[in-house]
Amino acid sequence: MATNQLQTRSVKPVAIWLLAGVFMIIIQVLLGGITRLTGSGLSITEWKPIMGALPPMNEAEWTAAFEKYQQIAQYKYLNSHFTLSDFKFIFFWEWFHRLWARLIGVVFVIPFVIFLLQRRFRQEMIRPLLILFLLGLLQGLVGWIMVKSGLDDSELLYVSHYKLAIHFIFALGLLCFTLWFALQLLVPATQRFEQPALRKSIVWLIVLLTLQLIYGAFMAGLKAAQAAPTWPDINGAWVPSHVNQFGNRHFTGFSFLFDHPLVVHFIHRNLAYLITGLLVWWSWRTLRVNGSRLFRQTRFIPLFFVVVQVILGIVTVLQSPHPDTFLWLGVAHQFVAMLLLLSLVWMLYLIRSRRSLPV
Q1: pLDDT of amino acid 154
Q2: Sign of the C-alpha dihedral, residues 273, 274, 275, 278?
Q3: Domain identity same for 36 and 182
Q4: Is 313 found in the same domain as 274?
Q5: Which of 146, 169, 186 is the last residue of a domain?
Q6: Is the dihedral of CA 255, 256, 258, 260 positive or negative?
Q7: pLDDT of residue 273
Q8: What domain range is 314 assigned to?
Q9: Could you say which residues of the chain have pLDDT below 50?
Q10: How many CA atoms lie within 13 A of 172 on its CB side?
Q11: pLDDT in tens, 138-183
Q12: Minimal CB count within 10 Å: which of 31, 121, 207, 351?
């Protein structure tokens, strides 16, 4: 009798735990965006997983931390005017970003142990849990490699926009996987239905949005919004010209597609238009599909988010010459981008493939 009770324990607490993880990962990504936009990522020059949870506790420790920062290129060539007060500001955002990552680890481990002792984990949940654990470790490792590269390079003022994009996309992968896992435990199989054509369209929309998010990371890394604070044109032109050069930089081959701020801006902007148009078309197609109750109630959410996202993107670009306003608009833009991605994942989950089994 006791064994049967253990086997039938509710998995709802596990699902709530996973949704808490979704919330915390969203906050972590937003903190990462603030860290990048404020140029704070290289302010902490050491990696101390345990002791590093505490910031400097007195003036002597703050002075020592500031002296270490003064040894890297970002300070020497970009922030040499910084006072200790300026340093404390950028230190806070990087410290908070790392602290939140530690909190995510605590929120993962403690309930995991409790649920393990309560035997709430079913056999089919073991593999997703292992994947979730490995994705979390990988994300932390990529984050440290990214920061360390900026500390080791004697001439690097900011972390590479390529590494920034990898870190960002890995975080979004972890976010989507966590949500998918939670949906498997929460959404009844009766709310899922087969519609191969709509599902295929959603897959392609997610692929395009992933590319768009990569270019969004490039935008932040290259400061491409500030390079062209205009709309609907880009500094008076519809298509960037002289793409083999930008300032003192020269581009060879197709590197301008990924390294030229104005080209990156052009691609990011036009991918947004394309995704918006495709989502309008997809939403119109859903009107002819009955689907499930949850599908009918939520099918226009992605369209709503993409419209809000485009408006935010335009306003963010126009406000990019104003650092304080630009920072919070940029964070809001990133937040809605995550909501858009999660809404598409939600749709993908509801419209199951023919090969998938009811959960």
Answers
A1: 54
A2: positive
A3: yes
A4: yes
A5: 186
A6: positive
A7: 97
A8: 192-359
A9: 1-6, 356-359
A10: 29
A11: 888 887 777 776 666 555 566 788 988 999 999 999 999 999 999 9
A12: 207
* Alpha-carbon torsion angle 247, 249, 250, 253, nearest 10: -120
Measured in Å, how far apart are the chain's first and last C-alpha atoms?
A: 26
| Secondary structure (H, E, C), the chain | CHHHHHHCCCCHHHHHHHHHHHHHHHHHHHHHHHHHHCCCCCCCCCCCCCHHHCCCCCHHHHHHHHHHHCCCHHHHHCCCCCCHHHHHHHHHHHHHHHHHHHHHHHHHHHHHHHHHHHCCCCHHHHHHHHHHHHHHHHHHHHHHHHHHHHHHCCCCCCCCHHHHHHHHHHHHHHHHHHHHHHHHHHCCHHHCEECHHHHHHHHHHHHHHHHHHHHHHHHHHHCHHHHCCCCCCECCECCCCCCCEECCEECCCCCHHHHCHHHHHHHHHHHHHHHHHHHHHHHHHHCCCCCCHHHHHHCCHHHHHHHHHHHHHHHHHHCCCCHHHHHHHHHHHHHHHHHHHHHHHHHHHHEECCCCCCC
pLDDT score for 1? 39
| Domain endpoint, select from 186, 211, 227 | 186
Q: What is the pLDDT of residue 5?
A: 46
The answer on 206 and 167 residing in a single domain is no
Q: What is the pLDDT of residue 28?
A: 94
Phi-psi region of 247 (alpha: psi -120 to 50; beta: other; left: phi over 0): left
Whole-model pTM? Answer: 0.90
Query: What is the number of domains present in the chain?
Result: 2
Side-chain half-sphere exposure of 249, counting CA atoms within 13 A: 11
Question: Are 168 and 249 in the same domain?
Answer: no
User: Buried (b) or exposed (e) across 274-291, using 16+ Cβ within 10 A?
Assistant: ebeebbeebbeebeeeeb
Same domain, 235 and 99: no
Same domain, residue pair 171 and 51: yes
Structure tokens at 65: 């931390």
Q: Are residues 9 and 75 in the same domain?
A: yes
Give the per-residue pLDDT at 357.
43
Residue 168: what pLDDT? Answer: 92
Contact residues for 165 (Cβ-Cβ < 8 A; gap 6+): 214, 217, 218, 221
